[in-house]
Design goal:
- The chain is an alpha/beta fold.
- It folds into two domains: about 1-115, Rossmann fold, CATH 3.40.50.720; about 125-390, Dihydrodipicolinate Reductase, domain 2 (2-Layer Sandwich).
- Helix content is about 35%, strand content about 25%.
- Helix 1 packs across helix 11 (about 290-305), helix 3 (about 70-80) packs parallel to helix 4 and helix 6 (about 145-160) packs across helix 7 (about 160-170).
- The longest helix is centred in the first third of the chain and has 18 residues, at about 90-110.
- It is globular, with a radius of gyration of 22 Å.
Length: about 400
């Protein structure tokens, strides 16, 4: 199979290296703006014009790995409409433009695959789709952001402050120069959109999902949660209940004996629960050049080999018209603040004051309500951190 790669960053290089050893795949064109350091031998196949790919009848499949939405969406749509299959690890693109991309694929008689968009090197979306062929997915949840997990695990194991660990994560390549997408929960949010839509045949949008990150956590929270026998982790949550979906992203404080609490460094742990098969969890590297690059090439080989994961007939594939409704998403929270307002007092069940800081356990409270309170406090410059208490 002759293929092209759009973008030769970290994942593009990983895909190229994996393609060389996979067999039966030949990279014949690369779209890049300039010469690629260390890959000067590829200069003859580098182009800056997408028409050199869309207009080449020999190219059957295109890997898009430039990231972001523009010009990635334009390139992907052009390729699909030209009848070329597309494989992408671009979670921003799939989260924001999936419906349009799916329509373009149908128009061009091509396939779109995106296993690497959530879980990186873990075959999470592959197994989610595989399970869904014969079963009904009830819930998907998990640790899907390696940067957040590295930060939280380091803070727990070393007693470090958030900012110090963030700098270390950046130095080690686990966090970007601008880490806001990771620590504010946006990356987890996008992976939640993709996982929920695939699991439940839904049309969840990013703006439908309450999201609170770990950017306000401190070592004081870690210490207090440890005294409660708990460990914080950043979590994706999506569950079907009747014709409604509970979907949200937030830190969760797990008992230190929970499986999630034992996930170390930058690893991911993602779980599905289905009616017949029950619970399955997938653990491994959620990012990185070779793990993600290999996941991309696995998608390429599946298309080449005719491995079809499209839904067939079966009990597990009834079309469900599910909409996001978080009214039933209610649980207790750990809450740390430096100012007890009337609004906070109204949801607190227990509190302990140490100096100027209040450590609280809330009554059962709606996810949407406590997220609103926490976001408002952050916008007003009031220190606050929240974490759902896993029962």
């Amino acid at each position: 199979m002759k293929i092209a790669i759009i973008g030769m960053g970290t994942v593009g290089k990983g895909a190229y290296e994996t393609a060389k050893t996979a067999g039966g795949i030949e990279v014949v064109r690369i779209l890049a703006r300039h010469e690629i350091e260390g890959y000067e031998h590829l200069n003859d196949i580098i182009t800056s014009d997408i028409a050199d790919i869309t207009g080449d009848k020999d190219i059957e499949l295109v890997i898009e790995s430039i990231g972001g939405i523009h010009p990635a969406s334009e390139y992907v749509l052009e390729c699909l409409r030209a009848g070329k299959h597309v494989v992408t690890p671009n979670k921003n693109l799939i989260s924001a433009c999936y419906d349009e991309i799916r329509e373009a694929a149908a128009e061009g008689g091509a396939e779109i695959r995106f296993t690497a968009t959530a879980g990186g090197g873990i075959p999470w979306l592959y197994n989610l789709r595989r399970t869904k062929r014969a079963d009904v997915i009830k819930e998907v949840r998990g640790i899907v952001n390696g940067t957040c997990n590295f930060i939280l695990d380091s803070m727990c194991s070393q007693g470090s402050e958030f900012q110090d660990v963030l700098v270390l994560a950046q130095a080690m390549g686990y966090a970007e120069a601008d880490p806001s997408s990771d620590i504010e929960g946006t990356d987890t949010l996008r992976k939640t959109v993709i996982s929920a839509n695939l699991a439940f045949d839904a049309e969840v949008k990013e703006e439908d999902i309450p999201c609170y990150g770990i950017d306000t956590i401190s070592s004081k929270d870690i210490e207090y949660l440890k005294s409660m026998g708990r460990v914080p982790r950043m979590m994706m949550n999506a569950a079907a209940e009747g014709n409604k979906l509970r979907v949200y992203v937030e830190p969760v404080a797990f008992p230190d004996t929970a499986m999630e609490a034992s996930v170390k460094f930058n690893f991911n742990l993602i779980t599905l629960n289905a009616e017949d098969i029950g619970t399955q969890s997938f653990y491994g590297q959620g990012a990185g050049m070779m793990p993600t690059g290999q996941s991309v090439i696995q998608d390429v080989m599946d298309i080449r080999d005719g491995i079809d994961l499209k839904p067939a007939s079966g009990a597990g594939l009834k079309k469900r018209k599910l909409k996001v409704d978080n009214k039933s998403a209610v649980h207790r929270y750990y809450l740390r603040c430096d100012e007890m307002t009337e609004e906070i007092e109204s949801i607190v069940a227990e509190k302990e004051k140490k100096g100027d800081i209040c450590y609280c356990t809330t009554k059962p409270v709606a996810v949407t309500k406590i997220h609103e309170i926490a976001h408002r406090a952050k916008a007003e410059g009031r220190a606050m951190f929240i974490a759902a208490l896993s029962e």
